[in-house]
Amino acid sequence: MQKTCQQCGINYLLSQEELILYKRFKAEPENICFDCQQMHRISFRNERVLYNRKCDATGEDIVSIYAPDKPYKVFSSKHWHSDKWDPFDYGRPFDFNRPFFDQFKELQTEVPRSPLVNLKSENSDYCNMCVGNKNCYLIFGGDFNRDCMYGTLCMHNRDSLDIDYSNKNELCYFMDNSINCYNSRFTWDSKNCNDCAFISDCTGCSNCIFCTNLQNKSYCIENVQYTKEEYAEKKKEILNGSYQTQIKNFKKFLELMSGRIIKYGHIISCENCTGDYLKNSKNCQNCYDVSDSEDITNCIFAAKSKDSFNVSLLGDDTQLTYNSIAVLGSHNIKYSYFVLECSDIEYSEQVISSHNLFGCNGLRHKKYCIFNKQYKKEEYEEMRKKIIEHMKKTGEWGKFFPKDLSCFAYNESTGMRYYPLTKEMALQRGFTWREENQKDYVHQKIEIPDNIKDIPESITDEILVCEGCHKNFKIIPQELKFYKKQEIPVPHKCADCRQKQRSSLRNPPKLYDRTCTKCGTPLKTTYAPDRPEKIYCEKCYLKSIY
């Protein structure tokens, strides 16, 4: 079925499989393309923009994803999760004379909010959208990490910094889409590698530098084999602890990456899947950054999830989810945001360990509630039917929350990572935009010694100026200890700019029709036709790697 997106105006096709899924989830197809749907949902999630503010219950200083001037009540995490306040105090009957979304916006503004989504953590107060981290700092969307800093959607890592979309690594630095690596830095799209630097698309390698497309190799530089002794001498020159040398190395690495042979997608151990950055999954169509999942269609990021459609950022053990974002350990979730260990939830936000909720906010361990008001089971079911009929008449049923119900400006949201927009573009699409306040920045630049050996311990007391965006940042003691131990130069850019640099090397979630450069087999790939890399089908790729 051909459709025209009412947001961006492009023509797109709805497959027969998608039409079947709409019927399965009892939803009508909207005239909104994949990109515009994802952009809309992801704008409701603020991952990494943090503010200092006061707890509205106790007055204590807290760190929050909600700016102090936002019209929301924000409690400290300890207070929000306690029994010192009752979400039922904000309950109200549904008014059938008014639109649903207008009433939900009022509830949304009044119900207290948790400052961060940071659950079951230990000594990891500055992490968000996380579960189970220990001794971590500025990890966003990453779970069960230990002694890690500055990571995005990274899982089960130890003693690592600046790692995105990477799992089960240890003593690693500046990494993306890599698994089971040890003591490696500047590692892309690789797995089971040890003691490597500036590598991409490598598997089972050790002691390799500036290498691509290698398997089970050791002591290689630029894909050339050396003896152990020769390699050691060259390594001293390449990885000498100098920041300026590291900049030159990274530039050289990018040039090597642009000329490498590439498999059409970053797809590992998958069956009947399309998209990119897929691992150990089955029957996942048009999916991106999905692992250990099954029967998912039109998704950006999912882990250990199944049977879901038109979704974003699903966590472990999530299933039967439709048109929702930030759902963990839940099933049968529709049109909702931040749902943890729940079932049968519709049009709700920040709800935990609950079931059968409709239009609720901030509830924990509750059931059969509408607009934070308790009902008996039979009353709930009858009222739910009436509200759905009302929403059909107002044209609201089957649509995700309107953009003005997001608590965040677009440039605060995760949308900026997947779909970067200028201010003008964001406003044109109906999003809001937050102007940055730079009056409190310290602009006097402090010279950072070039070599890690010359960095004084006192640098952790200094306010540094980022070379990329001119914002202030600091090197914390735990971070400096890692750099010195690993002989890695202290960065001259803040964590946000470093993350943007890594993110810029990832392919956007968009498929193109191409053919294998070698054999002409038709392919669906995230590598645009004007990209310089050679794109191979899996068969040709496996024949060509070293």
Give the amount of beta strand, in percent: 25-35%
**pLDDT < 50 stretches:** none
Distinct helical segment count: 12
DSSP helix fraction: 10-25%
Rg measurement, Å: 24 Å
Intertermini distance: 44 Å
Plain-language structure description:
The chain is built from 12 helices and 35 strands. The chain has 546 residues and is α/β, with parallel strands linked by helices. Strands 17, 18, 19, 20, 21, 22, 23, 24, 25, 26, 27, 28, 29 and 30 form a 14-stranded mixed sheet that branches. A 9-stranded mixed sheet has the order 7-8-9-10-11-12-13-14-15. The longest helix has 18 residues, at 377-394. 44% of the residues are buried.
Which key phrases capture this entry?
single chain, 546 residues, alpha/beta, 14-stranded mixed beta sheet
